[in-house]
Design goal:
Layout lengths: L1 H5 L4 E2 L2 E7 L4 E5 L4 E6 L6 E6 L3 H14 L3
Antiparallel strand pairs: 1-2, 2-3, 3-4, 4-5
């Protein structure tokens, strides 16, 4: 989580990053209102990835981005 906070993506789905929230994991919010959130389970050794976009295809792209961010 600390790495993600210090190295946020510049864009989500070609939309510049507008905000980052760190109250329950790390949530990146783009100017077009799409978002990507990564958070640890707290009870299991699992990282959960959530996303919202204007289309299903956009959500799938954000989820793939979330997975790629965890490989650093």
């Amino acid at each position: 989580m600390e790495f993600l906070q210090k190295n946020p993506p510049a864009k989500l789905l070609r939309s510049p990053l507008a905000d980052m929230k760190t109250f329950d994991g790390v949530k990146f919010v783009a100017q077009d209102t799409s978002w990507l959130m990564l958070r640890g389970s707290g009870t299991e050794p699992i990282l959960r990835i959530y996303a919202e976009a204007k289309s299903d295809a956009g959500v799938q792209k954000l989820l793939k981005l979330g997975v790629s961010l965890t490989r650093h």
